[in-house]
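Predict structure. Chain length: 370.
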Amino acid sequence: MERAAAEVDLGAIAHNAALLRERLCASALLCAVVKAEGYGHGALPAARAALAGGARWLAVATAQEAAQLRAGGLREVPILVMGALCEEEIALALSCSADIVAWREQTLQTLVRAGGGRVHLKLDSGMGRLGSRDPEEVVALARRALELPGVQVAGVMTHFATADEMSDEGYFEQQLAAFRDVASRVKALAPQALAHAANSAALLRERSAHFDMARCGIAIYGMDPFGADAAAQGLRPALTLRTYVAEVKLLRAGEYATYGRRYRAQTDTYIGVLPIGYADGFRRGLSGRGEVLIGGRRSPQVGTVSMDNITVALGSDPSCLQLLGSEAVIIGAQGQERISAEEVAEKLQTINYEVTCAIGARVPRRYVGS
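Prediction complete.
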């Protein structure tokens, strides 16, 4: 048995993409966001599964990620590189026939020097990150782009800050209204441009945010964009993180385990040692707070999470010795029990995105389904 492995259900990813496609306005396209190695699931297999489920675009954060997809055989599908790019990265993106994002004329001039390319103009409607805060500047940039040789205005976009927060004092609606105005003005100049703003939460929350395309990430992988219950959204979690019980030993009452003696047995207790740690994605912040599934039951993680190992309390019955070599599930289902990425995120006071992205590179991904 492998010390740790992540099993990714490609059928679940295809299901989720089909579900999102079904909930989109009929005329809107689905763009699957596969940046950060597909949120820890594996970019190339996830991309193929999402395309099989009905996605028509892919989005990444870097030019290098776009190059990886092209090298993996995805030659024809449109790819959008959403992040900030230096001149060399712009050249790499263009060599991959990928679209890029711009909000300054400097980027357009770089495109001209590189021989031209497709650009999506970005309005910062309230996220406070990339994009122009000035709607007039975005419209002017569209006019300027149409004058430049080889530059095509392929899209106009924004990014919602609070689509996953239902009580946001109307901020989502403010962003939506601001983008709607700019998108209509840009599309009047460049009718072929795709207007896109919705992430997973916005797609599920508000049909008027669908525009011409929705860029979905977290929901593609079967996690709830609202951080609650994926099943309530009809989504199927795609990832199971497994390890096994490598050692079982008895701690007598008063004896200690793990770095810093952070666990002290109050009574005679069998503990299991699992060969997974924070280098693999079982975050140190779960020390004394996490749980794992062993034998279809929840076992509490005890003591300090180390780089390569964790310890769990198995109980006081000598039958615990029989658990040596048993499968242990960190994220996923075993028997009637399930530990979701949302549950882990809540214990860490973070989001489900970070939970799967944190699964280390040394954890092999194994793919099932199609």
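Summary: The chain has a mean pLDDT of 97.
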